[in-house]
Amino acid sequence: MNGFLQSGSSSWRRAATLVLATGWMHPSPAAPSVAPLPAEGFRLLLLQRSSQQGFLPGAHVFPGGVVDAADRSADWLRLFAPHHRPPRLGLGPTPRPRPTFPVLPAAVSDTAAEDGAALPDDVAFRICAIRETFEEAGVLLLRPRASRAAAREPGRALPQQEGLAAWRDRVRRDPHHFLHLCEHLDCTPDIWALHDWSTWLTPFRRPGGRRFDTTFFLCCLREPPPVYPDLAEVVGYQWSSPLEATDNFISKEIWLAPPQFYEIRRLANFASLSDLHKFCLDHVLEGVERWLPITLLTADGQISLLPGDELYLEDSNFLENLLSTEKKTEEIMKEGKKFHRVVIHSSHVYSIHVTVQSEYKHVYPKTYVISFWETVT
């Protein structure tokens, strides 16, 4: 291996993303309120970012965005009272601590300082994910304030109501209005429907690039709600099964960044929405893995290394550096045995290689390999 590539200091921001999974059979009006879940699988909401966006332009992504000070406001406590008490507002026991590597330098860590923050991260980040889903997609995940029911079953988004478009414009201009919207509707963000899923840190690419420490949550809904892209940050959307999203990516109908592709392939392990929801409930105390991918540049491509891979090094130098080699990708792959990596052959050809097990009883994607020549038509 060669030495590090020269780099500068990144600017880090904390963010939250919501993987929204839904059943795909609309129950008839005469059906009972709790109808059997569809058995043929589920769909994921993918939003198409505007090509004018500075980060991941044109990509299909899960809803989400940067955590705002409004998401941590002490004013939320009075809205959740009296049924849900601080600090965790009924979320249950604290999950096991997540891995600490890497520790972000204090100078580039979360700009929302912990002093004065009324809500812990696992509450504030859920509020952020729900707010951003409303801003970007018009999907509102709220529940009545008086409701105490645990999220033992997949839920439903709030039906569209008169005046929500105007509220959405206000929230987009100032996130503090999201609290005012919830007060107006006498609802709280349905933080209990969001399950811990994973945490991704943006890998280093170039000096001074924007980077995010992003918490991924997963939410299961019984049926797909209407989606209304904001036509500014988001210009389109689709509901896709993991297989459909994979096929659309390979056929160049959509583009996915490696973390989204990885998560979609991970979700392909589940045959139904009920299986996915049960997995989330059974793993509520396991905690999530926090990953900083390390980019290995090869002579003819690049490999995104993840924790557990034999080439992955928990070394703070890689917070701001790339790894490189003069060997070709195929040669690197033939030499190894312990894999947790995404091989990036081109912008629409990724291969996932996994031979390790999760330390947190999570599920990893199965090895997924596609020949570059299979995509050439």
UniProtKB/TrEMBL annotation:
GO CC annotation: mitochondrion
EC number: 3.6.1.77
GO molecular function annotation: coenzyme A diphosphatase activity; metal ion binding
Domain of life: Eukaryota
Essential cofactor(s): Mg(2+); Mn(2+)
Keyword match Manganese: yes
InterPro entries: NUDIX_hydrolase-like_dom_sf, NUDIX_hydrolase_dom, NUDT19
Catalysed reactions, semicolon-separated: an acyl-CoA + H2O = an acyl-4'-phosphopantetheine + adenosine 3',5'-bisphosphate + 2 H(+); (9Z,12Z,15Z)-octadecatrienoyl-CoA + H2O = S-(9Z,12Z,15Z-octadecatrienoyl)-4'-phosphopantetheine + adenosine 3',5'-bisphosphate + 2 H(+); malonyl-CoA + H2O = malonyl-4'-phosphopantetheine + adenosine 3',5'-bisphosphate + 2 H(+); propanoyl-CoA + H2O = propanoyl-4'-phosphopantetheine + adenosine 3',5'-bisphosphate + 2 H(+)
Domain Nudix hydrolase: 11-262
Entry keyword set: Hydrolase, Magnesium, Manganese, Metal-binding
KW Lyase (keyword) present: no
Function per UniProt: Fatty acyl-coenzyme A (CoA) diphosphatase that hydrolyzes fatty acyl-CoA to yield acyl-4'-phosphopantetheine and adenosine 3',5'-bisphosphate. Mediates the hydrolysis of a wide range of CoA esters, including choloyl-CoA and branched-chain fatty-acyl-CoA esters and at low substrate concentrations medium and long-chain fatty-acyl-CoA esters are the primary substrates. Highest activity seen with medium-chain acyl-CoA esters and higher rates of activity seen with the unsaturated acyl-CoA esters compared with the saturated esters. Exhibits decapping activity towards dpCoA-capped RNAs in vitro.
Similarity field: Belongs to the Nudix hydrolase family.
Protein name: Acyl-coenzyme A diphosphatase NUDT19
Organism: Molossus molossus (Pallas' mastiff bat)
